[in-house]
Amino acid sequence: MSRGSSLPTTRAPERPPVPELEIYQSLWATELRRPGVPEAPVAERFERVKAAGYDGLAIDLGAMDLAAARETVPLYARTGLKGLLTAFPRSIEELRPALHLAKDIGSPYVVVVGQVMPVRVEDMIPVIRAWLALAREEGVPIQFETHRNCITNDLYATLQLIDAIPQMRLAADLSHYVVDREMMFPIPAETLAQVSRILARSDSFQGRVATRNQVQVPIAFPQHKRWLDLFLGWWREGFEGWRARAAADDTLIFLCELGPTEYAITGADGLELSDRWEEALELRRLAREIWADLDRAAAA
């Protein structure tokens, strides 16, 4: 071999793409709502979420009107945070501007908390189908959040909807159904099976822990440990099911959404009983831990 030449190097094989988990924070969840304390500017809260290492930030059109939400578009570009949008349409057509905003902030889909709420399931079905048709027309996927005070208010009705509409995908915030059905320990096997059906249709997950009577509880309080463990088990089941049907380059979003008062429990002084910012970071850690466990199991 001539001087100056080198032995050929063996390039390590490239790791094939695998599904990824991304953790988002909610802009609504960054509100403090402390008596006598003004809220930090929206731009400052974007910067704080970015500095904390979240992958993205979700806008909730139930907490911010469309005009104010449009003003956040430059903040996504400036911070590099990925976008996500939750809409509360009160008509079929009212979803359309939210779909347009989703494109502007790079939201991969819109979470729909539908405010058209027929009483009968047979009357709900054409509403869901109409929103799905509008989403196809605009080229933006939608997921229907399992949420109270909307078309998916009730677990039983939602189970009938997903049976009737195979194209209907869900965003699982199971805290609402724990309260909706007043689930009591031990959770009946029939109820667990119903939740499993919801998880099997869910393409994203939201981080909040409920008890049978409270939609959001401090996760570090020892009396709430069994509820935290219940939700961790559901998230594991949901993540595992999603991974089984995902393409290699798909991304799963887990949204930390610990809401301010009156979601957050307060004392007589009007102050919250726990630190939601720190709790969200802990939920992020726990979600990543579940994902890492599933990665290890897949590689074994």
UniProtKB/TrEMBL annotation:
This is Sugar phosphate isomerase/epimerase. It comes from the Bacteria. The keyword Isomerase applies. SUPFAM superfamilies: Xylose isomerase-like (SSF51658). GO terms for molecular function: isomerase activity. The keyword Nuclease does not apply. Residues 48-182 form the Xylose isomerase-like TIM barrel domain. It comes from Segnochrobactrum spirostomi. Gene3D superfamilies: Divalent-metal-dependent TIM barrel enzymes. Pfam families: AP_endonuc_2. Keywords: Isomerase.
